[in-house]
Amino acid sequence: MFFYRLLETVKDLNFLDTLLPLAVIIFIIAIGVVLLNQHFQKNLYQQKLAQKALKSKYQNELLKTTIDIQEEERNRIAQDIHDELGAVISIIRMNLVMLEEQSAPDDEKVLAGLKNARSLSENALTSIRRISHRLMPPQLKAFGLIKTLESVIDQINKTAFLKINLNSSDDLKGLPWDVKLGIYRILMELINNTIKHAKATKIDIHLFCKENFIHCDYTDNGIGLLHQPEKIGLGRKGIEGRISSLEGILKSGNRSEGGFYTKFQIPVPNNCSPLKDY
Question: What is each CA distance from 274 to 25, 141, 169, 195, 215, in whole angstroms?
């Protein structure tokens, strides 16, 4: 009886000795499968991030290219309007002046008609100049961003219906061309929206450099945004597109004290030194 028990004990020990290494092997395999799965998931996640970054980069480059093409076309149209159409109307005006001088003094109807035509031609020349400058402001390259903005603001302030205050910590001459043009277009669109929709009497614009960023704070005292986020106008989309193409950050909304605000910042490394705050 004792012998049979001893034999069963030996068999149990042999079974355990066989099972234990097998269990260890299975455990190691399981750990390996878990680690391999984690490594696979990590690689998959990194690949997704890389694809997303690549897609974002491609979209941003496509957006930049689209904006560059638009600016080139604006520049071409502005040049054509100024050089060709402007020249033609200038010649028409000169001929009208000559006809005025050659007309009989007692022919009042003819003189009145010629003066009226000359006045219309002069108004047309003024409109052509204004439109071509809006399409591509020549003073932006010649005098820089701040001087150009001040010139536009002075013209608006003369109307006495709207007062615009521009506060800048510097003339910002060191900004890259695409940044200067982008900021100019954005601010013109914001001012245009305020004039058309906000019923505002005052606009404040603050531009300053800080930590290799150009910052802009824009506020008006109008009626603010009507809460219809599903209706985004072309102007707003244009602003968002320009900010995105310049890798900037945009934030806007209604002010607690009334009116509208927009804040944006655009990176300009090595071109925007830290300056005094406004």
Answer: 63, 23, 10, 33, 11
- Using DSSP's 3-state secondary structure scheme, residue 209 falls into strand
Least confident piece of the model among 53-62, 131-140, 234-243 = 53-62
Residue 206, φ and ψ in degrees, nearest 5: -120, 125
Of the candidates 129, 157, 133, 130, the one whose C-alpha atom is nearest the C-alpha of residue 143 is: 133
> In angstroms, rounded to a whole number, what is the distance separating the alpha carbons of residues 16 and 150?
91
The answer to whether residues 24 and 32 touch, using CB atoms and an 8 Å cutoff, is: no
Q: Are 182 and 219 in contact (CB under 8 A)?
A: no
Q: Which of 221, 215, 213, 210 is closest to 186 using CA atoms?
A: 215
Tokens of 172: 């910002």
Please give the pLDDT value at position 52. 64
Q: Residue 33: count other Cβ atoms within 10 Å of its Cβ.
A: 10
pTM for this structure?
0.67
Kindly report the CA angle at 52 between 49 and 55, in degrees rounded to 5? 150
160: left (phi over 0), alpha (psi -120 to 50) or beta: left
In angstroms, the Cα distances linking 12 to 22, 23, 27, 116, 254 are 15, 16, 22, 120, 80
Residue 3 is predicted with a pLDDT of 45
Task: Show the tokens assigned to 223.
Answer: 């009626």
* Best CA proximity match to 64, nearest among 251, 213, 247: 247
Tokens of 20: 């234990």
